[in-house]
Amino acid sequence: MANRLSQVSGHVTNTYGRGLLAGEVAIITGAGQGIGRATALLFAKEGAKVVISDIDAKRLEDVEQEIKAAGGQVLSVAGDVGADSFPKLIVDATVNKWGKINHIINNAGFTFDKMLHTTPDETFDIIMKIHVRAPFRLIRQAAPYFRVKPDQRENRSIINVSSTSGLHGNVGQANYASAKAAVIGLTKTIAKEWGPFGVRANTVAFGLIHTRLTAAKEAGVTIEIDGKKVALGVPGAKGPTEAPSPDAYSFIPLRRGGTPEDAAGSVLFLCSPLASYVSGHTLEVTGGVGI
To answer: For 170, which of 21, 65, 151, 241 is 20 to 30 Å away at the CA?
Structure first.
């Protein structure tokens, strides 16, 4: 892959645009930090024109400037993916700017953990809204740009982010596990319905990736949803540099948690021509957990 910055006669030469996604347009939600940010940066390096979105406008602006500074092409559309107006807003902005859509990466989301018997309806419903309903509505809004005539086909794909919680369940995550299982069914349906148009649809089920969702809950990180503060993180969790012993990740064959960059690489693979005959698949990115 030749898309990197190289020095010629003391000057930095930009070689963006010659990568695996050269000239393609990708919408990435939840791109203000973590996996979404890493995916946006990697896609831009690989020549994609990226449309990034996040509910945190300031973080989104920082990622936009980071991509531009490296010579990438980017459009920011801040907003709440769960809002009724959001799908039309981002699809119209994307098409008005670049005339097409090649990829949608439904990455935005958060956890709202409670034991099943103490989970109120609204706590269950908001997770389903953001992780299932929002991706469904965005994909549906973009349908005219995916269901195209054979002579207009390019590399096109849908990536929905799931989790090992959606594959195996998880204590305290009845809402999150249900939502992440649901997007797998959604993805497989898209693969069957849109396959005849040359569209691929795949799911990525992440294991332990070091982000704010898997950091220590004691750090006090919160987000505001519908006017309520939601605490993020896992009680007592250790970050990648805080392992208390060599056995801290003994449950992971690779003996470490994943980085956002690890996660982004798997998304790039599924969107790229390298996965041109992969559709309806759920790629487990876990460091070997669950084998």
So the answer is: 241
Note the pTM of the prediction, 2 decimals. 0.86
Per-residue pLDDT reduced to its tens digit, 163-177: 999 999 999 999 999
The ranges assigned to domains in the chain are 20-209+260-285
Domain 20-209+260-285: CATH superfamily, name plus number: NAD(P)-binding Rossmann-like Domain (3.40.50.720)
Burial class (CB in 10 A: 0-12, 13-18, 19+), 236: exposed
- Active-site hit among 145, 176, 249, 277: 176
Residue 217 is predicted with a pLDDT of 46
Q: Record the tokens describing residue 160, joined without a space.
A: 């929905």
Where on the phi/psi map is residue 70: left (φ > 0), alpha (ψ -120 to 50), or beta? alpha
Q: Is 176 a catalytic residue?
A: yes
| Length of the chain, in residues | 291
